[in-house]
Amino acid sequence: MNPDNKSIQDRRHLHLLICICLISLCMKLFLLYYLSSDEQRFIGVDTPTYVGPAMALLENGAFLQGPNQWDTPETFRTPGYPIFLAFSFFVSSKNIPFTIVLQIFIFTGTLILTFLTCKKMFGSGAGIIAVILLAFDPPSFVHNFLLLTETLATFFTVFFVFSVVKYFEEKNNLVWACFVGLTLALATLVRPTTYYFFPVLLLLVAAYQFKTGKWGHSGRKALVLMVVPFILLVGGWLVRNWNVAGVLRCETQKGMALLYGKGTQILSYKENIDADTAMKLTSEHFFEVYPEARKMPSREVDKLMMDMAIKMIIANPGVVIKTQMIQLVNFMFEPGTTSSLFRLLNPQYEIKKFNWYGYRGYLLGMIENNPLFLLSLFLGLGYICLQYVCSFYGLFHFSRVNMSNYPFWNHLFIFLFICYVANIFALGSGYSRYRIVIMPIISIYAGAGIWGYLQMRQKH
Q: What are phi and psi of 417, to 5 degrees?
């Protein structure tokens, strides 16, 4: 393309980006005005576990499970989101709708970062389509209105991906190397899912440097600049937990998450029962085996839960593989138009939970009792499947026309990152809420696919 024409096109796409962001912003602010009469709409299941430490930060200046709970320092949650809530509550005198406004603006920042990342990888035209797809992604849309980590974690995750793309593009740029470590650390402190990806990232960057002949003084310096901010922030948090609770972990709920996640899945699959019943039975069995756990500190209970979960996994390897595959499918394909979307408009809305092992009866019940909900499931499923089809087309189309050095490493990094995130969440419970952090990446590749197809049609 002629440089002048490309410049004109980029300006047009920039204007389109501004329009899309403004439309998304205005729609959500208008909806917030409508919803703000009942603040219960903004409360998720896990919200109290973030609000408690935030209030303790405000009232006591310490990271505790709740105000004045000096004997229970908070180790269950990482500090990123509670600090954000504490800041919002301090500025707004504990006004929840104000926090939602901040989250809506943060999501707008995510849209901009998604555009910039896609523009670097596939061009500004693909970036505009990616932003449109992401702006109306159902689970991302809903969680802008909930006091949960998803919106903030997604922002830092996309910033991390953008930093890696810039690092590879600019061939060992030390500033972007520092941003890679910093943004991954911030994403981890908001949501610790990315904690174990750090060594994978360092191995990938080292492989890139060796393969491209960049291993040397500047290459080693880049690795150090990635490590330092991560060690200072995440390592500092680990040291704090060791000092206050005697545990060298990001958060003390790994055992609980694994037992009530994978352990519940194993029992649900073997006994052909729904997840809620399986979780109840798992909990009862745990306290039968360890009755003393009712009086033990939570961190000690978590160790016992980890031991029981590992024993269940070792005893049922075949079931573990099957349930992991089921949860991966759930993670990637759950529509995201589930009860959260309906409950946002009606806080009293309840729907029977989906059971993969009894799906036929579930669907028949929905047809009879709630056809609108069932329609939303199929529309949501169609939306996410379209994204995946376009993503694969985008990857193969642009790989064919442009496979220079750094795009290969970008694609490899993103593939490893998506696989890592999906499998980590599938160990617990894979569903659309947890998919939100990778939806900007999916939208980037889907945007590339649609843009590539439109370009091909133009040529013909």
A: -65, -45
Is residue 170 scored above 90 in pLDDT?
no
pLDDT at residue 198, as a whole number: 96
Question: Cβ distance 198 to 235 under 8 Å?
Answer: no
Q: Which residue has the tokens 């009942």?
A: 38
Question: N- to C-terminal Cα distance for the chain?
Answer: 17
In this predicted structure, which of 70-79, 141-150, 280-289, 359-368 has the lowest mean pLDDT? 359-368
A 10 A CB-CB count for 236 gives 12
Helices (H) and strands (E) in the chain, counts: 22, 0
Q: In the predicted model, is pLDDT for residue 364 greater than 60? A: no
Q: What angle do CA 273, 277, 279 make, to 5 degrees?
A: 110
Tokens of 9: 């096109």
Query: In sequence order, which residues have a C-beta less than 8 Å from that of residue 358 and are 6 or more positions away?
Result: 272, 274
Q: Percent of the chain, pLDDT > 90?
A: 50
Q: Which of 225-234, 264-273, 427-436 has the highest mean pLDDT?
A: 225-234
Q: How far apart are CA 438 and CA 331, in angstroms?
A: 11
Instruction: Confirm whether pTM is higher than 0.85.
Output: yes
Strand partners, 64: 73
C-alpha 419/C-alpha 294 separation (Å) is 37
Residue with tokens 């004109």: 8
Element (H, E) at 175: helix 174-190
Kindly give, in sequence order, each residue whose CB lies less than 8 Å from that of residue 448, ignoring residues fewer than 6 positions away.
Answer: 118, 121, 122, 126, 130, 390, 391, 394, 395, 397, 398
pLDDT at 356: 45
Check residue 41 and report its DSSP letter. Answer: G
Element (H, E) at 65: none
* C-alpha pair distances (Å), 348 with each of 335, 339, 344: 21, 11, 9
- Nearest partner of 293 among 267, 255, 328, judged by Cα: 255
How far is Cα 81 from Cα 86, in angstroms, rounded to an integer? 9
What are the strands, taking DSSP E only, across 328-377? Answer: none
Kindly tell me the burial class for residue 200, based on how many C-beta atoms sit within 10 Å of its own C-beta (0-12, 13-18, 19 or more). Answer: middle
**H or E, element range at 195:** none
Average pLDDT for residues 152-165, to the nearest whole number?
A: 97
Rounded-to-integer distance, Cα 370 and Cα 351, Å:
9
| CA-to-CA dists, residue 72 to 53, 89, 198, 400, angstroms | 10, 22, 29, 56
Q: Can you read off the two tokens belonging to residue 167?
A: 């690092």
